[in-house]
Please model this.
Amino acid sequence: MEKIFVFGHKSPDTDSICSSIVMADLQRKTGEEDVIPCRLGEMNEETKYVLKHFQVEAPMLLEKVEEGQTVIMVDHNEFTQTVDGIENAKIITVVDHHRINNFKTAEPLFYYAQPVGCTATLLLELYTLNHVEIEPKMAGLMLSAIISDTLLLKSPTTTEKDKKAVEQLAKIANIDINTYGLEMLKAGTDLDKYTEEELIRLDAKKIEKEDVKYVIAQVNTVSIPDVLKRKAKIEQEINKEILSKGLSLFVFVITDIINSNSEAIVLGDRTDAISKTYEIKDNIAVMPGVVSRKKQILPLVENNI
Amino acid sequence: MEKIFVFGHKSPDTDSICSSIVMADLQRKTGEEDVIPCRLGEMNEETKYVLKHFQVEAPMLLEKVEEGQTVIMVDHNEFTQTVDGIENAKIITVVDHHRINNFKTAEPLFYYAQPVGCTATLLLELYTLNHVEIEPKMAGLMLSAIISDTLLLKSPTTTEKDKKAVEQLAKIANIDINTYGLEMLKAGTDLDKYTEEELIRLDAKKIEKEDVKYVIAQVNTVSIPDVLKRKAKIEQEINKEILSKGLSLFVFVITDIINSNSEAIVLGDRTDAISKTYEIKDNIAVMPGVVSRKKQILPLVENNI
Model:
């Protein structure tokens, strides 16, 4: 039987990793035998905490795909965020909750997207549609993905469907979501172990609009000042990245998960895309109430670039 | 309440027209009030037969959309095949069964696609998912769309889901599919009333790959020689179209719906995309067993251009 790789985006977050594992599980239970969950990069501390908690193995590291390789994409669709070689792969399925950007295939495919807070919320629907029973471990992974993407249902990306999914999954996984959720999110805020180079790549989305390339990266913390102690070195790394990748803009968003605020380090030729809305002082934009890259920062940049 | 336009592709076929009407019905029944089914061009004779048979009004003709207009696309996603102004519209939903090609939105959306024979097969699933009862008229329209797209379930694009959908819908609409289906298809083969200029645009898909623009048009008939009597004039119109639109290739596929064969008039600088597989003599390629543009002709051209 044909081997199928399932993966989320580069700089994988908890949704990308968990949804790959869960989607592979669902595929196997609906008849596909050789489905391999993969990751396109190092896992962050939050995700490691999740996999350890539910005693689930990490997905295989995938660096590129060969021509004609059959793949399933979860939690992303943009080619700038995916595995090398995607142009010549055979994409049979996408399950995602992002906007679609210059996605293309040669053949018709299964594509399921909804404007919800997390890919895992849609995977839960697919289990239901296919009448497949959900194991507690898989419920735990989906639950973790939703908590991660919605910052414990507090992000403006959160929908009724996500809330209902969390409720249903918490029962199956037998988890108290507030206790577990906060512990899990806090595990992801231990940024000390990363070099600045790693920090700016930890959860970085590269976007191209016409000829303008830019990156919006995001880290979670319980103390923004703690992260900003490393500002000089972070800026140095960002400037290196701007030069080597030919970027017009790099937005490094530091999100306080307790108080639901962000501050961003903004560098590049096109800082105007941010400064039209938020004052930038000493390369820093203070963004009260901002926690969602997708819903709050990306549209802002897109409209101004 | 916000007005929402629903439409299929330009050069609308029966699936594009019926799915617009049916999708509007489904949207209304799930809470959206002001949903307007639209068409992006003249309806063909087959579609007129269907609407007359089920006594359903024709959708409104839509020539372009204003900036910010909320829209739902059915039966297509490629911007080259859709309404003028789409780049600045707000696409909230797509239901489709084609490959995805350079589709993009600024925001997350509901996107539902599967590699099945017809959009209406997916709409039937959405009725079921939303627990909405299907009226006989709507069942008749969906049934007609599937019969049209799959040439009475004989095209290689036909899947098990399409077959099951037809069975279910025939019961609701109380229709004998073979009798009705053949009559409906035959109604679409009366090509005498079209000028050659109309004929080549009746069901034409314009495709761009990198900088190469090409068109694959298709007509159904019960007699290929009857259509080829007009070959000289058809070629004249195709050559005009090639010049005015800057096309590299125009493939005009004439499909015999009784015997499931096609012959194509092939013109342009890049006829090699066809001649690598089918011998072209006097601008004509004979294609035994070929009835599906999507599954049999498009991949061929895409691979060779």
Summary: Chain A has a mean pLDDT of 95. Residues 237 and 271 of chain A are 17 Å apart (CA to CA).
